[in-house]
Design brief:
Blueprint (H helix, E strand, L loop, with lengths): L8 E5 L2 E4 L13 E9 L2 H11 L9 H5 L10 H17 L4 E10 L8 E13 L6 E11 L5 E12 L2 H8 L2
Antiparallel strand pairs: 1-2, 3-5, 4-7, 5-6, 6-7
């Protein structure tokens, strides 16, 4: 058996490996750009569940007849749904080991999103520093852009989160 590990995995025992979730502080240098995959095609159910969970009653998001009479001519996916899906796409690689989310800032919806659009996310690490009040952690700030299938930027935001400086000790302690 080959002893080389596939990137993104670690050996548990001989013949057994485990996927890594999230990166640690040292694995997130300033300037690193991550293209998140897979993309995500938005469904009508995504939009309906998101609007229902948020309590957003705007007919532009739920009423096909109403929406057909607007400039968009069809249902517009709720911005909260778009933000949550794009942010969610980033977690596995950027912040799967997060101790805490500290901020979500500068959220901008730049183009409409419709049912059937496929979204992709890209994240750049813009700053980081060791946490002063939480030894063993670092504060990382990332700028994320969401693009649709036509490569039109639909969303940007900045997110700041706390990650461990020694992710392997956290993985060992949590069986991750």
């Amino acid at each position: 058996m080959n002893d080389a590990l596939p990137h993104g995995y670690r050996r548990i025992t001989q013949g057994r490996i485990r996927e890594n979730v999230g990166l640690g502080y040292d694995e997130l240098p300033v300037g690193l750009v991550i293209e998140h995959r897979p993309g995500r095609t938005l469904t009508e159910l995504d939009n309906l569940l998101g609007t229902a969970l948020s309590g957003n009653p705007a007919p532009i998001h739920t009423d096909a007849h109403y929406s057909s009479q607007t400039e968009w001519g069809r249902i517009l996916v709720c911005g909260g749904v778009t933000l949550n899906l794009v942010a969610g796409m980033t977690v596995r690689s950027t912040s799967g080991m997060t101790v805490a989310n500290l901020g979500l800032d500068e959220v901008r919806f730049e183009a409409p999103v419709f049912v059937g659009d496929t979204l992709y996310a890209q994240t750049e690490v813009v700053s980081r520093r060791l946490a002063k009040s939480r030894p063993g952690t670092g504060i990382v700030t990332c700028r994320t852009c969401g693009h649709n299938q036509a490569d039109t930027r639909v969303l940007t935001f900045t997110r700041t989160f706390l990650v461990p400086t020694n992710p392997d000790s956290v993985r060992d302690a949590t069986n991750y």
